[in-house]
């Protein structure tokens, strides 16, 4: 049985911090990947998997920043995704019977392996990395300048990822928790712009 990670100063950290950079650094690099064989019209219910264990390559400043913990930011990522799924007519269900599972992951480092999330839960993914080869940081100075948040939709029965949204942005350690929460909402809304199921009117 999957168990949620406890007391981890997560990756969440990154993006969401990031999600509050100054005007010149607020660009959100948003991408979406879809399994062309998936039947999204059959999806009615979803359930969240617990957060994956943290990647330990975090910036020293983030470790001591209370606005950058999983406890502070995780619920707001989940709430923002819930909002977008509800707009599309999906409802939360039981984890054992839901049509799809949702899972999020966030990281400070720009060099983590995105296959980690699927490997942790045992589902297949074929998404390319949003980080171009050769651009992983080579010094500690750049490790905490960008953050990444991934949201996967996983077909429960087949254990296959059928949609992934990702956002990469610069990090600003000085933003408040409320500013980060607002940025999370903006990032997730952008992430779902190309989601196969369109919002209901």
Radius of gyration: 16 Å
Helix count from the secondary structure assignment: 6
Q: Kindly report the spatial arrangement of strands forming the biggest sheet.
A: 1-6-5-4-2-3
Counting DSSP E segments of at least 2 residues, the number of strands comes to 6
Percentage of residues assigned to helices = 25-40%
Structural class: alpha/beta
The major beta sheet can be summarized as: 6 strands, mixed
Explain what the structure shows.
The protein is α/β, with parallel strands linked by helices and 201 residues long. It contains six helices and six strands. The protein has helices at 12-18, 60-63, 70-87, 115-121, 140-143, 177-191; strands at 29-34, 45-48, 91-92, 100-107, 146-155, 160-170. It has a six-stranded mixed sheet with strand order 1-6-5-4-2-3. β5 (146-155) and β6 form a beta hairpin. Residues 1-25 and 130-144 have low confidence and may be disordered.
Summarize the SSE layout with pairings:
Blueprint: H1 12-18, E1 29-34, E2 45-48, H2 60-63, H3 70-87, E3 91-92, E4 100-107, H4 115-121, H5 140-143, E5 146-155, E6 160-170, H6 177-191
Parallel strand pairs: 2-3, 2-4
Antiparallel strand pairs: 1-6, 4-5, 5-6
Helix pairs in contact: 1-6, 3-6
Features:
about 200 residues; alpha/beta; 6-stranded mixed beta sheet; 6 helices; about 25% helix; about 20% strand; disordered N terminus
What's this model, at a glance?
The protein has helices spanning 12-18, 60-63, 70-87, 115-121, 140-143, 177-191, and strands at residues 29-34, 45-48, 91-92, 100-107, 146-155, 160-170. The protein is of the alpha/beta class and 201 residues long.
């Amino acid at each position: 049985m999957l168990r949620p990670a406890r007391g981890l100063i997560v990756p969440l950290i990154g993006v969401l911090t990031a999600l509050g950079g100054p005007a010149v650094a607020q660009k959100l690099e948003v991408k979406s990947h879809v399994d062309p064989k998936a039947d999204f019209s059959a999806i009615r219910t979803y359930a969240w998997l617990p957060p994956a264990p943290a990647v330990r390559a975090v910036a020293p400043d983030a470790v001591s920043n209370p606005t950058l913990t999983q406890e502070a930011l995780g619920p707001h990522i989940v709430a923002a995704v819930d909002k977008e799924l509800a707009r599309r007519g999906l409802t939360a269900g039981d984890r054992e019977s839901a049509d799809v599972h949702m899972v999020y992951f966030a990281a400070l480092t720009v060099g983590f392996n995105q296959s980690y999330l699927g490997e942790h839960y045992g589902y297949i993914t074929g998404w390319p990395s949003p980080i171009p080869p050769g651009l992983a940081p080579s010094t500690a100075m750049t490790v905490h300048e960008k953050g990444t948040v991934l949201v996967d939709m996983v077909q429960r029965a087949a254990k296959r990822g059928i949609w992934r949204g990702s956002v990469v942005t610069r990090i600003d350690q000085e933003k408040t928790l409320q500013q980060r929460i607002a940025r999370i909402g903006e990032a997730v809304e952008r992430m779902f712009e190309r989601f196969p199921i369109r919002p209901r009117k």
